[in-house]
Amino acid sequence: MAASVLPVLFEGRVKAVIELASFHQFSEIHLAFLDQLTESMGIVLNTIAATMRTEELLKQSQALAEELQSQQEELTKTNKRLEQQANTLQASEELLKNQQEQLQRTNAELQEKARLLAEQKTEVERKNREVEQAKQALEEKAEQLALTSKYKSEFLANMSHELRTPLNNLLILAKMLAENADGNLLAKQVKFAETICSSGADLLSLINDILDLSKIESGAVAVEASEVRLTDLRDYVNRNFRHVADGKGLEFASSERPCLRKPHWNWYRLRCSVIAFSVEDTGIGISADKQRIIFEAFQQADGTTSRKYGGTGLGLSISRDLADLLGGEIRLLSAPGIGSTFTLYLPETYLAVGQYRSDSRTAPRISFSEHLISSRMKPLLPAPDQDDDRDDLHPGDRVVLIVEDDVTYSRILLDAAHANGYKAVIAGRGDMGLAMARKFRPCAALLDIGLPDTSGWAVIDQLQHDPELRHVPIHVLSIYEDRRRGLSLGATSFYRKAEGKDVVEDVFRRIGALAAKGSREVLVIRAAEAARQEIEDVLEIEGVRADYVSPAAAVEQLKQRAYDCLVVTGDPAEVPVAELLEAAAERDTAVVIYSPDGQAGDLRPEVRAARSAPQLLGEMVRVLHIPESALSEYQRLKLEKLRQTDHELAGSRVLIVDDDVRNIFALTSVLERHEIEVLHAENGRAGIETLAADPRIDLVLMDIMMPGMDGYETIRAIRQVEALRDLPIIAVTAKAMKGDREKCIESGAADYIPKPVDLDQLLSLMRVWIQNRRQNVSRAGSAK
Fold first, then answer.
1. How many Cα atoms are found within 13 Å in the side-chain-facing hemisphere of 97?
2. Are residues 667 and 639 in the same domain?
3. Same structural domain for residues 22 and 137?
4. pLDDT, mean over the chain
5. How far, in Å, CA of 731 to CA of 712, rounded?
């Protein structure tokens, strides 16, 4: 096997390679032949390549020639267009030349205007700086005004305290003198005291006007919206102003007539019915140039020091702002020597301020705040939240008062009253309930404890201590379970709402049973002859019959016959008190322990104790539900004298914490009349030390504004002591601004009363809280 590789060359360059193989070795001749052959093959291959290259170049030359011809044609067209553009440019150059000349003239004008604008800009910048300086000055003045307003509010609050504190003492002591409890003052001296008390009330009214104006100006006004019947409003006006007019020798008349025209308010577009209230007089009249200024604060028609008529100039300003707040306005029609007519226009349906005003940015803010019960206030009765029978009452109707804020439950009670043959009136708040009780004189009251404005406990106490209402039976229906407290305050019965329909039926059963009785039956356990004679004198009441039995026969007598009241007398060791109480409870018989020696023992909450004949008479009036008007003159005088001392508070220990010794003296004088032991401390720290040293204190009357440690801080410190956490603390303060009551309660006070102190309200709060404390202490002792 042999192989040979031969290159194909042309002019020394390799064009190809030939590889040959043979089964035999190549000879020299073979190799020579192959060399010659490769040379010929190189020539042929080179010729072929040259021919192919020539053809390719020819094709490229033809393509280039065609492309060159096409470009030449395009170039010809382009030259034509360039000639046209050159002509156009030449025309444009001429036009541009003209425009350039015009621009040069315009630039000259603009440069002149730019110079003027630069001058104006400089002037505007100068004025802007002046405006900015003025704005800063206004902002500084606004800040100063806000600061001044804050200082004014603080000043008014502090001044209120400074004025109310001495005024509180003045009114308390003047009232004590006017009452002449000891009977040692001449009629003229009593008149002096009444004049002092009246003048103090006028001064209080002036202070309240100033505070009202401050609250209106600050935009924080407490508004309570409710419906009011015009008939009630008419009665209210006659009741409160007729005697004032009579006292000044003025004729007073009131009337109702349809309003034939409606005023035009240009500040709202709301269409509504309008009610007009006009006050007309035949006085001196007001000139036209003075009619506007009298509605401004502290402004009067005659503001000179030699003016003939008094006043502060605040009343009309406050009235105008309040009318505006209620969506109305006040108009004046007056002429000198003829008289004046002030007309208040109000929409028949009250809406929020923002619904009347197109621009409410200046509208005062309305806030709804809790309304305090005060015996000074005889509130105007609003229309009920739901229908009741107040407009359908006739002589002889039996009326039930329902004091309940739950609309659904009050409707249930109303339907039950109708089903049992009673008329019913409904009050959703405690103060309204008291006012309605005084007006409608119900035969029974159904009371809830959780009321929106106060607690039902306070309502029970005030009803029980009102001579004209004490005989009204009070039936408590509440979700609260403190039956012991309700009965001890004087409630006839105490039910839980959760007990269902049977509760309502049982309440009206008891109301009906009491109304059906023509006389009252009293069972008296035989006592010593002297005690029996006192009891017989007490029970000399028309319609009251008494049986006298021995202690041994008393239980059997109770089982055989139903009595309205059981009077237990004699030595507690000789009387089966426990058995008597059980028998009385089965018969729903009220129990009164008569113990002139004070040894009544530990009583159940439904059992009341009397330690004197007048107290026993008072308890008979309450448990037998006898109006005081049914008593003899002698008996009414005994009860009146009894009320001069509050025996429920007698023996209590009260701490007064106040930095004003005059206030301590005034309150001490009042409380000691009711046989209350009074301790005092002139600052918060001294009060805390007194409480730590004397654990027998029943209640604290805490002033709020004291130097160093104020009342809030003192109350919080007292609540930190474990043994004093349940001690009743009543804030007695001259701070009567909005939110002060809430702040006192948040600090830990049990209740709040503003100065000048309403003594009836103060004593009521003290009774409620002291009695509650005694019950808690008694429960704690029983648990141990």
1. 6
2. no
3. yes
4. 78
5. 9
